[in-house]
Every structure is written in C-alpha cells, then in structure tokens.
C-alpha cells in the first residue's frame, strides 16, 4: 500500500499520473519543454511515451519535431526514424515536414558515411561512395576511376559495371561510346544476370543503332525481369513497331500506358502502333490523349517555373 502510494506521488510529480489522455498530453508537453532547453536525454523517454497517444494535431506535430531533433542530438537514429515516419504519416505532403525529412535523411546519410570511412577505410564501399559523390558533381572520369578501383578490390561486385556503362553514356559521344558502354553492360549481366536495367540500356543502344532483333531481345528480357519497368515496355513496343511488327507492339505499349498513364510518349507510340495495325479509331483516341497529357505536362512545367521564379517585377521602363 505504502509502495503504491509512493509510486503515485513520483509519477504525479512528472505530470503523468494515469495512463490516459491527460497523462500522455502532460508527458508530451513536458518532453517538448525539456527538448526546447536542450535536455534531450530527459525529453526522449517522455516523447516516446506520448507518441501515438496524442489527438491534438498541433501537439502531435510539436512532439514529433522535438523528438526528431532530440533523437539526432543524442545519436538515437532508430528514434529519429520512428518520429519522422510518424510525422509523414500524420502530415502527408506538408512542406515543413518534408523539409525536416530531407534534413533527417541527409544527416543520417552523412553519419553513416563517416562511420563507413572510420570503420572500413580501405573497403570497396568507400571507393563506391566516393564514385557516387563524384558522379553527382558531373566528374565523370574521376568517378569512373573510383568505380574501377572497386572492381580491383571486388571484381564480382554487382552494379559497378552498370554504373561505369552509364558514365560512359553520360559523357560526350565518341566513335566508341556505344561499344564501350555495351561491353560494361554485358559485363554487368555476367555478374548479375537479373539486372533489368542493364538489359534495358543494351536494348536502347541496339534500338538507336537500328538493330531491331537485338533490341527486341534485350527489351523482352528486361520486362520479364521487371514487370513494372514501364520504359522497357515502351522500348519493346517501339522496337517492334520499327521492325514492322505493330500487332506485337500493341500489348507492351498498352502495358506502358497502364504503368505510366500520364506519359505523353507512351500514348503517342501506342497510337502509332494502332495506326500501323489498321486500328484508326484507337489511334485517334490515343493521339487525343497524347495531346491532352502533353498540354498538362507543359502546364505543370510552366507552373513549376513560375513557382521557382516567384512574382516578376515590372521593369521601371514598363511601368
């Protein structure tokens, strides 16, 4: 009896005496207050306790935001992920939450890369990390050198030949670009026969070289490896149409349209296949959809441009 009474006094002192809305609310408010003064180790247990039990939207947002910042401050990465996932679930498409999410994952990425560099500085993964960073900076040659360093350490590491091939295609074209890239993608398939991306790019290289049977073979393998690979279905349909097989092209192009209904190109190439197959009514319908989707895409681009540019001030001479 005395023990139970003492416990009640202790929990009441923290404002969380009973397991109910009032106690969870009090725990959240106290946790937020502690977080605001940098007392994150004391705040986190209270914020964890209250998470999932708060109904008020403003308090829920404040709890989650405080929880994220405190979890990162004391390097509790699991807690940071739980809080940010809950915020995104409760406030989808919210600009502030999305902005916070960007910084959370950026911070976690930096911490993981630092840990990798500290714990395994000579590993192939460090070279790969360097290569990816160089690639994002457009330093193609330097990135390629790092990827090749990965292969020196682990010749069977999946994905590396694919990345080198992609780098080759990203650089200014030469007489050997396609041959060099093709060699890398074929090497990737020798390491990873289930790489649908490598099959797709080989199909694109063959299509651009008007090697229709080869293109059809690669695209066909890509769509078998990944049944949701819309671009591969689109490539297969285009290659079949170009090879004078419009009847066979219709099915993959219809799949591409189903997977990417807002892609104007998918509707255009399906319309082309329909027309070549003598289905004029279907072709006209798809061309109409193509125009509609093209107009919508143009409007979205214009809206995005205006949003980024902001309101335009009239020039003094125009006033």
In short:
The protein is mostly helical and 319 residues long. Helices cover 77% and strands 0% of the residues.
Task: Tag the structure with descriptive keywords.
16 helices, mainly alpha, 319 residues, disordered N terminus, Serine Threonine Protein Phosphatase 5, Tetratricopeptide repeat
Let me know the number of strands: 0
Distance between the termini: 83 Å
In DSSP terms, counting alpha (H) and pi (I) runs of 4 or more, how many helices?
16
Mean pLDDT rating = 89
The rounded Rg comes to 28 Å
Unreliable spans: 1-19
**CATH overall fold name of the domain at 14-117:** Serine Threonine Protein Phosphatase 5, Tetratricopeptide repeat
Can you tell me the overall shape?
Answer: globular
Proportion of helical residues: over 70%
Spell out the helices and strands N to C: HHHHHHHHHHHHHHHH
Q: Sheet bearing the most strands, described?
A: none
User: What structural class do you assign from the helix and strand content?
Assistant: mainly alpha
- Proportion of beta-strand residues: under 5%
Mind telling me which CATH architecture of the domain at 14-117 this is?
A: Alpha Horseshoe
Q: Tell me the name of the CATH class of the domain at 14-117.
A: Mainly Alpha
